[in-house]
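Record 1 of the preview.
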Amino acid sequence: MTLCQAWQHRSRGDTTSFGRPWRLIQSSEIGEKKARERLKRYRKLMLGVQEKVPRDAWKEDGTFEEYKATFEAVKGQFLFNSNTTLKRRHGELSWETILSLKYKKQRSS
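->
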């Protein structure tokens, strides 16, 4: 799942969450420890995206297209070189890869 898709699901939800935005999922609802840790990492990155989104651009009940447009406005702040032999375009990196690269870059600065 790309960062843009993760942002859309956080904001709007999907069929597996019955249309419930992922930002409303509580860690107490998740039984597996690994899944709770993944939710924690996911939230960390999504809060980073949310901080970059202008307050007037946020809509509580927007569409997937509106959330994509919101993300497109801030995606330049989440571009990283993956330093691997696999050359992916920035829009193809998974949210977990971007999280790793973002905090790796911050630790080295």
